[in-house]
Amino acid sequence: MGPATHYLNISRPFLMYRGGELPEIRIAWESWGKLNEAADNTVLVFTGLSPGAHAASSAEDPEPGWWEKMIGPGRPIDTDRFFVLCINSLGSCMGSTGPASINPATGKPWRLSFPELAIEDIARAARLVLEHLDIQRLHAVIGPSMGGFTALAWLKQFPGTTSRVALISSACSATPFAIAIRSLQREAIVTDRNFRNGAYTEDDWPEVGMRLARKLGMITYRSAGEWQRRFGRSRQDYFPATLFGMRFEVESYLETHARKFVGQFDPCSYLYLSRAMDMFDACDSDETLKGLFRRSFTGHALVLGVDSDILFPLHQQRDLAGALEASGSEVSFHALPSVQGHDAFLVDFDSFGPPIREWLG
Amino acid sequence: MGPATHYLNISRPFLMYRGGELPEIRIAWESWGKLNEAADNTVLVFTGLSPGAHAASSAEDPEPGWWEKMIGPGRPIDTDRFFVLCINSLGSCMGSTGPASINPATGKPWRLSFPELAIEDIARAARLVLEHLDIQRLHAVIGPSMGGFTALAWLKQFPGTTSRVALISSACSATPFAIAIRSLQREAIVTDRNFRNGAYTEDDWPEVGMRLARKLGMITYRSAGEWQRRFGRSRQDYFPATLFGMRFEVESYLETHARKFVGQFDPCSYLYLSRAMDMFDACDSDETLKGLFRRSFTGHALVLGVDSDILFPLHQQRDLAGALEASGSEVSFHALPSVQGHDAFLVDFDSFGPPIREWLG
């Protein structure tokens, strides 16, 4: 939530996909480039679980964004040509309404009284921003990781609204391995003595659980091969060495990342978004994936993945590409040779930039 | 520790590899079959992190052991021919001295005052059992998982004492990925509110941390592919469903396994053994792996691994086999096509049985 963030406030009830409602919502978004006369040059970017709407820097906010090298003048998502829009997910804690927001009925944070969140809700909340901007049709929707789920939830609910879709290191639903990992992350949070069934305070933050959750996340976001190259069995001297904690460089690396994350992200937001990822299934309405694409999309699809991704393994991207092809769409599928695992799309711009630039046309 | 367990009590100090000493030690072991006249038919089996010496049932103890289908009359490790010996690791809590044992100087459990444990100590403690039985030379040493580390520590310290060695789903040292996983398991235990720096009690057991550690273990012991086949996205109805905990079958599977483990294994034993695995390096004395094998072993080596193992990945077994071959030994190397990950050696007897039977001659 920087100086370039916009907020859309909707003061009517928002019905949740799995039941319940929010009496009002706020959606945080940021944009780059200009909407053209025909209002047909919008590139909508959905995010992974933790990032906010600040995907790139701008004159108003020079702070680098989470996809800084991907979005900008002359960059793969070229803001000289496109009106690029990134929307903070409903349920997150980076400006949009989520479990950390105040429930107007009680004057207190929602926390665990927040209704169950679905990926479909995130897509529908984003749609409100597009309506607010009076944009009917998109040039492209781009979804990396959880954002790929959101892009699929978009197609499901708003068929025929985009000419291009990019599903990056994503899938049509989570594997049991990914569910198991997230289940453990949630268990670490809810069993933290400070979590107190959601009644945690600024002074007694569930740091222990959040730290474990983040470290486990990092283990699945990167790859064993990358760590072998980067760390091997090197020792660390950044933190005091301890018998059971800090001896190896890989341990201090995890600790450094965890410390950065712990205070920044709301534990309940994490729980709701994490479970929404487990529950998402593009085909939960007895529709095949091919049927979903045939009904909702005609255009040029891009599917990217890397073979070192253990959270969204490459066979899931193959399945997406196969269904898109079978539905009659033009599909560019690239299995990229990155060693950086699931997070490769955040760091390996040499691999991910060119296919995105080409696909955007 | 069943009715077939034997105990060797050594009442002189045991010097630890990384410093410190134990004033006395006890080693638990079990055996099957008979030692022959020449005392040259012993097959020594080292264990993974958690199992005890009860590898198989017998007349004295009909309870199935952890390698029940592998050891017995006519089984791959044939007790009609071999004197099979399984030794509970020093540092464990299954009969041998470990952090849960009483420190004779204080009359209280050692817990965190136990000296740092090394895999080399486990091998040296096992050696005392062999000396007690007056066995000079072994027909074979078999080490699966952590047991493979122990087998290497055996060769390092007792060169030329065995005609055969089997390294199963093991390595010459841990990858940074494996270290990261174990680091998180330890962090979950030591941050449990009941851990109290080792002063936990029967009534206030660090169950939360042990449960998380065990679940994370299970995630890395099996494979994503196996879970895809077994569970897919099936829902569970075994435990009450909860929004953030129990909805999917994979979640109830993990919970069931964790509940079995939590009360059975001592948290401090887990910490010491876990860190000993991180620290082990067959080549920590400036010796190459090839040099180690050349110095310590001439005979027939067996190296087994599976391509779905993420904890001891197949390239590590290839490295072992390559070094053994380069050292001049006869090597049988099998990359087995099991989907069951690191734990395949405990469950997939159709794949692991035949090569072990053949190699034993």
Polypeptide structure, described:
The structure is a homodimer. By secondary structure, chain A is an alpha/beta fold. The first copy, chain A, has 2 domains: about 5-175 and about 280-360, Rossmann fold (3-Layer(aba) Sandwich), CATH 3.40.50.1820; about 180-275, Orthogonal Bundle (Rna Polymerase Sigma Factor, Chain: A), CATH 1.10.1740. In chain A, about 35% of the residues lie in helices and about 15% in strands. Chain A has 11 helices and 14 strands. In chain A, α1 (about 120-130) crosses α2, α3 packs antiparallel against α4 and α3 (about 175-190) runs antiparallel to α7 (about 265-280). The first copy, chain A, is globular. The interface between A and B is large, with 47 and 47 residues.
Short structural summary:
By secondary structure, chain A is of the alpha/beta class.
